[in-house]
Structures are given as structure tokens and as C-alpha cells.
Amino acid sequence: MAVECKKPSTWAHYVALLKKDLSQELHTKDMITSMGLYALLVLVVYGAALAQAGTELDIQQMAGGLLWAVILFTSLLGLNRSFSHEKEQGCLEGMLLVPMDRSVIFLAKATANLLFLVVVEVVCVPLFFFFFLGQVGAAPSWPMMLIPLAVGTIGIAGVGTMLSTITINTRGKDVMLAVMFIPLLFPLLWSCVAATTCAMCAPEGWMNTFATSLAMAGAYDVVMILVSWVLYDFVISA
Description:
Blueprint: H1 10-28, H2 30-50, H3 59-80, H4 84-88, H5 91-97, H6 102-132, H7 146-166, H8 173-201, H9 206-237
């Protein structure tokens, strides 16, 4: 009597791929360590660059842009290493042989990248506040910045995963990823910087600008992540 084997569900594939990425990172700590050190080094450079600026510099107005610059370039470093283990060890070809929806690979990898970014942000954001806003402080509405921070991080992880897949087999992939990543992320970056600055400074009528910028960032996330999810089968199989 033949035994019928039950095909694993899409959710089972997603969980298995996510566990693989998380367990691999917990074992090596390559991505989190490199991203964390890079973020700390950028904060040190910021401190050196702004040390002689004097009291005329309004650091509170600049804080949103400075913080997002740290997050953007730190995420770029991590995304460059996103598929390094799969490529070096030949795991990517094995994953493509598994009869499953290729978009599951995208969702699992994007989720893993999102979690790694969140871990780094949990460390670097408080340090940023301590070093650069410890003296001048921020508006009472500063906790609202966590919303654009979350929306922006989701967009970076989703779009970045797609672009890192596109550039994985290209020569000079580090440069190619940066060239594609920063222009494509500019609308999201602009919206998140505007919303973060509004939350930190709370100027008159800031809620309207905050809500508009946040809506733009959310719409960007929805559209770009859906496009990445739909096109991922073609991109990873090319």
C-alpha cells in the first residue's frame, strides 16, 4: 500500500527558511556585528564632524536626517551580506530546487533582514539620542518617531531584499546595490525624515506634516513590497 506524503504548506516553508537565517546569524553573528560596529563608527564620525559646530547649529532640526543616514547606510552594509552564505555555500541553488513558491524566499529573507535591522536600531537609536540630543533634548512628542522608524525599516528590508537578490550575481555587487538602493529608497527616506523631524521638534501644525509624510511612507511600503513579492519569482530564477 502506497503511503501518501503530505506536501509542506507555504507557511511551513516560510518558517523553515526564517529559522535557517536566524539560526545561522545567531551562530556566526556576522551581519549584526558588522552592522552594529558600522553604526557606532558613523556616530563617532558625526561627533567629530559636529564637535566644532558651535551653538548656532540647531542639532534638533538635523537629528532626523542624521539618524536616517545612519540607518540607511548601516542597512546597506547588512543587505550586501544578505545572500552571502547562500551564494558561497551553494544553498541558493538547493533552495530553488524545492517545489515551493519563490516569493516565500523573499518573505522569509525580508523578515530576517527586518529583525536584524531592528536589533541594530535598538542599540544605535538610544546612543544617538544620548550623544546628540542629551544636551538640547527633544520635543515631548518624540516617541511618535517610532512610527516612521518602523514604517521605514519595513520598506528598507523589503526593497533591499529584492535589490540584493538582483545584484547577487553581478560584478561589483556592493557598488551596484548602492547605486540602485539609494535612488529607489529616496521617496521613503524623504517621507521618514520629514515625519521623524516633526516628531522630534513638534513645530506649529506638525501633526499635518507628520500624518502626510507617514501616509506617503506607508503607501510606498505597500506598493513596493507588493511589486517585489510579485516579481521575485522572475528575479531569483533569472
